[in-house]
Amino acid sequence: MAFWTYSGLKFGIKSVKFPEKNDFYDGFIASVKMDAQRCLNQKDSAEKCRECEIICPTNAIGLDNLFKEESGGSKDKYEGINTERCIFCGLCIDVCRDVAGSGGIGAINYTADLDFDAFLSSASLPLREGRVEGGIKKKIFKKSLFVKHIDTGSCGACESEINALNNPYYNMHRLGIFITPSPRFADVLLATGTFTEQMSEVFFNVLDNIPKPRFIILAGSCTLFGGIFETKEAKEIGFNIGLLNSLETKEIFRNENIIVVPHCPPNPFEILNVLLLIKNGELK
């Protein structure tokens, strides 16, 4: 601790300029992408490979329908990775590079593109009265944004990234975003974890005490489908399969503004970006 205090006093404390400038640190990862031109499963390739699909622990890769014909035209769209299920383990990248050969670059790689994969969840939850349709029409929260975080059964990785937002490097307070211990003062419920049976009552109590208008951010793979903890037994009992998939929350979430931030864990920049979009009324 003394070393870091000394370093801070000597060199000064640095805060990122994001969102004015995308001054991401070296090695920043925002998503995982497939390159259609390199993949052995492209339409005209006689050689086929399913190593990435086989090794993926969360079934995030599907190679049956990599190309889809876009409506109104004949242009092909390359698809293969379900970013909602990707946990950034890197196994697909390693095996793809092995297939490419020594020194080769595989078809799957990390990317630092500003693809935060955050969206209003409407595909599995039909919009009803009270939901925000077509993005936020206006700036709902005028000055500041207060966030209530709840852990519904997490390994702690997502919490580590959320805690980082309070440090001098990210310094989300400069943007008018604050973590609040009381749900009654919150504008946003930030949930992490697989959604265990033991935490279900706590979650609903917190949600009931957050006034509307409000947003619910589901951060991390665990909140979406259970992450690496997703099992056949978990699906049968309806818990440990994520807040988005749980039968306990599906009916309630139909009338809520749900924002999904996948990955394991989501990067602090991803979480901060979503909070800014809510605060500024720019979520599409």
Which descriptors would you attach to this protein?
six-stranded mixed β-sheet; 10 strands; 9 helices; two-stranded antiparallel ribbon; 284 residues; 2 domains; globular; Alpha-Beta Plaits; alpha/beta; Rossmann fold
Question: How many DSSP-defined strands?
Answer: 10
Q: What is the overall number of helices?
A: 9
Architecture of the largest domain, CATH level 2?
3-Layer(aba) Sandwich
And the CATH topology of the largest domain?
Rossmann fold
Identify low-pLDDT runs. Answer: 69-77, 121-134
Kindly report how far apart the N and C termini lie.
42 Å
Written overview of the protein:
- The strands form three sheets. A six-stranded mixed sheet has the order 5-10-9-8-6-7. It has a two-stranded antiparallel ribbon with strand order 1-4. Strands 2-3 form a two-stranded antiparallel ribbon.
- It has two domains: 31-111, Alpha-Beta Plaits (2-Layer Sandwich); 119-280, Rossmann fold (3-Layer(aba) Sandwich).
- It is of the alpha/beta class.
- It has helices at residues 2-11, 51-55, 91-100, 157-164, 197-208, 221-225, 232-237, 247-253, 268-280, and strands at 31-34, 67-69, 76-78, 108-111, 119-120, 145-151, 177-179, 188-192, 215-219, 258-261.
- The chain contains nine helices and ten strands.
